[in-house]
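Re: weekly structure request thread

Next one in the queue (996 aa):
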Amino acid sequence: MSRTDAGQSRDRARQALARDVARLVRGDVRFGRHDRMLYATDASLYQVEPVGVVIPQDVEDAARVVRFCAARGVAVLPRGGGTSLAGQCVNEAVVIDFSPNCRAVGEIDAGAGRVRVEPGVCLDALNGEIARRGHRLFFAPDVATSRHATIGGMIGNNSAGARSVRYGRTVDHVESLDVMLLERSGEARRATLGPDAAGVEHLAQRIAQIVQRSAPVIRERFPTIVRRNSGYALDLILDQLDAGRKPDTLNLAPIVCGSEGTLAVTLGATLRLTPTPVARGLVVASFASMGEAVAAVNPILATAPSAVELLDETVLRLAARSAEHAGALDLLPRVRGRSPAAALFIEHTAEEDARELDSRFEALRGALAGAPVARVIEAGAVARAWALRKAAEPLLHGLPGLRKPITFVEDTAVDPARLPEFVERFSGIVAAHGTSAAFYAHASVGCLHVRPLLNPADPADRDRLRAIATAVADLVREFGGSLSGEHGDGRVRGPLLERFFGPELVRAFGAVKAAFDPAGLLNPGVIADPGPPESITERLRVLPAQRPIVTPQVETFFDYSDQHGFDGAVHMCNGAGVCRKTSGGTMCPSYMATLDERHSTRGRGNALRLAITGQFGDTPGRPAWADAQTARTLDLCLSCKACARECPSHVDIARLKAEFAAQRRASGGRTALRDRLLARVRDLNRLGAAAPGLANAAARWGVTRGLINRALGLAPARSLPAFGRPQTQVRKTPPPSGAERAVGLVIDCFTGFGESEIGADAVRALGAVGCTVRLIDAGCCQRPAVSLGLLDRASTRGARFMGAIADAAARGPLDAVLFLEPSCLSAAIDDLPKLTGPAAQRARRGAPMPAVGAPMMLAEDYLADRLAEKPSLRVSSPAGPDVLFHGHCHQKALLGPESGARLLRALIGDRVKPLDAGCCGMAGAFGMTRDRFDLSMVIGGLALFPAVRANPGAIVAASGASCRHQILDGTGRRARHPVQFAADILCPVGDHQEGR
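Done, posted below.
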């Protein structure tokens, strides 16, 4: 049979399998290649295409899938957040994704300290729900991925986290597991694994026999440190037998914890909860070298900390480049006037009285022998510090160059007392192979996350990878440590288990696997029968079929030098899954609303990588610009730019999405009439503003509105923005006498033709702080064209826009060029300056993108700066209702969360309440269209609408026109622009005060 015939036969079998599964379940069945490939990677080095993907509607759906696959002999891979670092989340199997729907938190028994949960609930969501129900309890293992790590995944991985020195691992907090077990007959059945072994007595006896046979070797070869997570937990079964437990009564839950989905499929868990401490205290200590920091760990442990976390110079340097985390570095004390080369984050816990922390701090100061320390007390500062620590792993993927800090020896653990010597020997192995490494660690338990810098696409570096892995395995065994402290074996460490444990224990692992999974269908090839050491570098993401994946040469529109070239941008996503969080920040609004991997930043990043590197499409190796499925995956991206800020790897999906759309058109794709019209929003608004009364009446008339809806693809339920007099026709405010500065104010497409009162208020407010205002009518900033991927148009007309602003600035000295609309400013300072790639240059016939010789900023931020410079100008308004401030996504992404809020705080003090409400869901034309309206409103309903409705007496402020429109449609409340508050307070006119 030819390769083509074999492939067609597999496709037919897969289609038949998909049809059969679809008849069984209520959830989604996704066996198309695009969907499969989105699940072919996790946060590891590997890429393995699954058989198909099932997203069960509930755990009963999942049970049906397991029974079906067991009967058919089809492999199964249960999956949580897909953030595994060792490759255990990818396999040729039917992937069951529990994370979207199986997220229920059952009744909490506060007296017993127990809760029953489904496997798809995330750790932070679980602890948040426990707190919401009024209990001072929590699930103690606290992994760095807590916002997106599922409980099922934590059980499969036996996760631990920063506080494991105090709270241990997940296995220490599992009461019982509700699982699917596979039988030799080809059937699958539900069972409960826990203190009561009813229904699994025969299986318990078999496991007892295996462990008893190997008991001497288990005692000899298994590490005794806290953080041990390699192989199956035979030692925990032996502990039960040593304690006198009868073989047929064994609690088998501990051996399933850490089994990486190879022994059973977890459908639910009863977890033990821990009382919430009265207080926690954080101290940051800085050091001049890694060696000094590691040497300080054991003296610190004598003070009984609940966490000691290590960050090295590489992580700290990358954090300094991160807009999201750079501010946390201010918490680190300097070492002899210089930035530290390493830092320790040291936490103590008070169980009964917060004053306990004072004595712990004094003891710690003595233990640190003069090292610079800072006690972090303010809650926001503590949160920033821990956010930095949790971002260490994904931050490393932003390191420039072809060599990246990769995961293959990143999880060793040894006795903390031997950590200094171990670090020195480990560093020597890395250096001997011609590279360096980044270090961060759970230092309190000797668990090191070491990332050697290698390029897996380079054959010589693949040889180094295997050599370093082998040498480190020998070193860890010498030190009595564990190959894995928490990340598991997966594909990267499984091949070294025999070298580490010896053949007898590896045979015991195989026997355990056969007892639980006789047909070998659960995540096959992981832990048991993992393959030879050479397989560590097989099926890599950069070499999935042992053929290198190369990003083709593309004449791009955007410049990607800030992301190490187009190839760097395409491969920037490392799969860490930070974008899969469901609360806090803005990234990723469509994922928060859908809980669909396809509509996460990671899903889009994977789709783009696969399409651009030719892994989709009919011609291998050539970009699949015409791939309809990739276009569909990108369609629900709101281009909010949050990923460029909040993703620790700085994945910029908005830019890549626009590039992909532009390249698709350039290669023969058509441009829809809707997109052509929406790109000309300024022309449409100018036309409506010529006769606003008539235009508004026509837009409200059913027949006319129907025609508009059809032409632009608008949602009938969406209101249309009202037209007003153009800003150039609004009555001018006389220039202030004795004006000190001149500023330019750009007339944008919305405040210029619909909300011209905002422009007038901006002129008044600027005049009140001593500024003469010149209105700049530069045309459209091309934000709609950029977002729609019409980059040839944006390249040429954007140059005219920038040129007009540059000319205005050149006609006389301007202190700044100001914008009222954040998305217009973001076009001017972020998108248009990057439209300098070869395709953009060609569109402009070689003409450069003009540069503006004056700072460009938001009007509200300029006003805040002026008030800070001259406190005498400040006329505060302390009395009155609260003001809820919602920042525009681009404003938060490019300027930070304080943009806009600073002005309001200067004017009204603590009455301003900035909302952590993510994206409003409108995103310009996105929320206007028929096919995206419902999603737009769901996004708004996640946090923004509830926050506004919960404060009926508050005034709402928002900088973005789209945000104000969405707030009106979603809550019936009219939001005001921050400059309007400044105008009312700094130069009130008559009785016009802060309005609603």
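The CA atoms of residues 308 and 711 lie 61 Å apart. Residues 727-986 form one domain.
Next request, please.
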